Amino acid sequence: MTDPTTGPTRAAAQWLTDFAAALAGGDIEKAVSLFEPDGFWRDLVAFTWNIRTQEGPEAIRAMLQARLADTQPTAFAVEGEATEADGVVDAWFTFETRVARGRGHLRLRNGKAWTLLTTMTELKGFEEKTGDNRVKGAEHGVHKGRKNWLEKRRDEEAALGYTEQPEVVVIGGGQGGIALGARLRRLGVPTIIVERNAKAGDSWRKRYKSLCLHDPVWYDHLPYMPFPDDWPVFAPKDKIGDWLEMYTKIMELNYWSSTTAKKARFDEATQRWEVTVEREGKPVVLRPRQLVFALGVSGYPNVPKVAGAENFKGDQHHSSQHPGPEAYAGRKCVVLGSNNSAHDICAALWEHGADVTMIQRSSTHIAPSQSLMELALGGLYSEQAVKNGIDHHKADLIFASVPYRIMHTFHIPVYEEMKKRDADLYARLEKAGFLLDFGVDGSGLFMKYLRRGSGYYIDVGASELVANGSIHLKSGVNIERVNERSVTLTDGTELPADLLVYATGYGSMNGWLADLISPEIADKVGKCWGLGSDTPKDPGPWEGELRNMWKPTQVDNLWFHGGNLHQSRHYSQFLALQLKARMEGIDTPVYERAPSHHTR
User: Fold this and answer.
1) Phi/psi at 38 (5° precision)
2) What's the pTM value of the predicted model, to 2 decimals?
3) Nearest Cα to 116, choosing from 19, 9, 24?
4) pLDDT at 351 over 90
5) Other CB atoms closer than 10 Å to residue 440's CB: what's the count?
6) Residue 349: what pLDDT?
7) β-sheet bridge partners, residue 499
8) Closest Cα to residue 191, out of 251, 123, 138?
9) Distance between CA atoms of 345 and 246, rounded to whole angstroms?
10) How many CB atoms lie within 10 A of CB 546?
11) Is 175 helix (H, G, I), strand (E, B) or coil?
12) Which pLDDT value is given to residue 398?
């Protein structure tokens, strides 16, 4: 416990003073000694030009030996008042490096650092033009031939990509590409976002009719422009689509809709990418220095190859192509899969009078929405959290301050409580034959999301339909053969079918590279997403961070950005700063670039 005569704020200030003195004096052993033997230091770009967690003294020592002299950290200062609970002091602080300013978070136990988070917030000399530094907009005085804002925007749009080349091309104009584009715009990085759909937001509008966000509004704000305070807790897909379209206009993004990326290659001589796109039917070659793939959390749809599928007389498609339930009233529908999309589609089909069967191949984690909001998200992302002074900016950093190595220990108690709270639903689901799990270690939904990006359903109503038999269930089986008007399962059961939906997920993001650049580059980059936890669908070795996301990859000038709305918002800041630094010629020596252990 902290000495009551000093209090948590003074304890944190003393630790930071000692830490700063050790770093300033180059006394790496002293700095390392200020951490617990099992302490962690997670750095988002500030020290490592990477997104990396140092686990334990050897890793912390090695990073400081490599990076301290160049980073030159100074000006450590406690921000606000520290707090203490259960013997852990929580403190916020600010600091500077030779080239940047930063913000951090510290957890102390018995005077030693348990976790340390350092994040870069801005580059010195390249700050965003906000607050007192905002541009005037109006050009007062009298000037012949002057152009107004609209004329200047039109000139920029006409030139960029044709007579002037962008610094960055972002392939993918969904929420991730748009969030990153907004960050880069604010930093003055010329950027083109390439999107195959006709309008921003179409990637949401074109999904099945019933789709709504399963995450609450407080978790989902875009950078710089929060949703209005009457925005629904769970936003419908078309409302999100309209917001994204509006956002691209207001943030003045150079957004090339109806544009498809065809091929990309890196020109070693010019150190630029050559990206061939087709824009509204016409080929254009873009030559950016940096190429970013912002295509969500997934690659191509996984469509299983099932014997006889080519002979099916009904409709069959992947869930990403599902048009909605309207045409299937009174029809026999089979949905292969048991995660979010499968549940949503089954529920919508049932609502429209279809006879629907869910095929569950393996166990699935179910997290009832209300319980998830109250138990897992409420402390950081809720109306009450905002009233407690935790807005989404602060919540993002609190979330980021927990190293992935120990994150599951924070989540296990949440799902133990959920098991108790929702015991009746779980019991009735299992009675109906549904295969339930809470993750291999009981850590529930978010760890499954980080480790594999699948294997769960946030229950917004469909679980009750499964439990009471309204949605028919066949579990522990797969489809062995597709017939003209039915499917035969691996247990020999035959189900009549007019519609077959493959809610079977997606491949890794680097799958896009194989077609657009080359299979060799795709495999050099390696698998995207996952922590290397050696749990199902997340093979080891341990990575400590999400593979290839928001940080340098094994291929220079090639980046991945994506995730849910929260991750797109939060990590776009750090990717944008890395890209800005490179544009301005700031030296960015990457510490411990993650190796590739897995191909597609």
Assistant:
1) -110, 35
2) 0.95
3) 19
4) yes
5) 15
6) 96
7) 315, 333
8) 251
9) 28
10) 25
11) helix
12) 96
